Amino acid sequence: MIEKPTLLSNSFRFITIAMLITWLILPLIPLAIWSFAKGWFFPLILPKYWSLRAWEYALSDTAGVLDSLWLTIFISAVATFLSILIGVPAGRALGMYKFKGKEIVELLILAPTIVPGIAVVLGIHSVFISIGLTNTVTGVILVHLIPTLPYMVLVMSGIFANFDAEFEDQARSLGASPIKTFWYITLPAILPGIIVGGLFAFLVSWSQYILTLLIGGGRVLTLPLLLFNFAVSGRNDITGAIGMIYILPGIIILLLTAKHLSGRSAVGGFGQI
């Protein structure tokens, strides 16, 4: 029997959502104001003069913001694709099967989310130097897999823990090829997990600063690096404009995948049988 929501529960839900939205949006308000301000000094609540100068500079060829934007999108998209490519079969193995040493494998997969990123990258920096992957886009993409893969594997293992392999067996017994079985049976069942895991992977890659700086050596200039450069230089107006550009793709992706972020089928931990 499903209980009807009461006035108290509805009020609590509304207050919780309102507080969450306020908590998320409030830090963006000063950023947006700075991007249109022509000087904003204490104790003024709002700038006295407004200008589009920061946006004109940020969108010009001189600033290099658009080049960094497209480069960041490319790196994050490729890192996400590789995370999906590796994470789906790895998640299936961890979610559906028991094998010796499974707990150790799970711990190793989760390790990059526990150990600070700088400690991880310092350990592989010399390896990347020896094989010529430092200061390259390829090296940055590969090092981004360190923080993105655990999220993808974690989500997919939860999906496959609730997946019934008998549907695949029935499809094959009726003459379906492995490709058709995957396309028509497996993929629809795991697609929400792929979308959610891919979203996590993209946003984690999108926000990387330390890993990109150490492996890219400052030559692979992604948007987080460019944003930090303007922030430390004291150009708050340009920092605000670039900051708004920086958060826009993440908001768009969240809106496009919002319907897949709810529901038990899209989340989970390492599967158990």
Secondary-structure-derived class: mainly alpha
CATH architecture of the largest domain: Orthogonal Bundle
Number of helices: 12
Question: What is the total domain count?
Answer: 2
Structure description:
The model is unreliable at 263-267 (pLDDT under 50). The protein is globular and about 75 Å long. The longest helix is centred in the first third of the chain and has 32 residues, at 65-96. It is built from twelve helices and no strands. It has 273 residues and is mostly helical. The protein has two domains: 1-51, no CATH class; 63-266, MetI-like fold (Orthogonal Bundle), CATH 1.10.3720.10.
In short:
71% of the residues lie in helices and 0% in strands. It has helices at 7-25, 28-36, 53-58, 65-96, 102-114, 117-130, 137-161, 166-173, 178-206, 210-216, 223-232, 236-256.
Can you tag this structure with a few keywords?
273 residues, mainly alpha, MetI-like fold, 2 domains, 12 helices
List the topology elements.
Layout: H1 7-25, H2 28-36, H3 53-58, H4 65-96, H5 102-114, H6 117-130, H7 137-161, H8 166-173, H9 178-206, H10 210-216, H11 223-232, H12 236-256
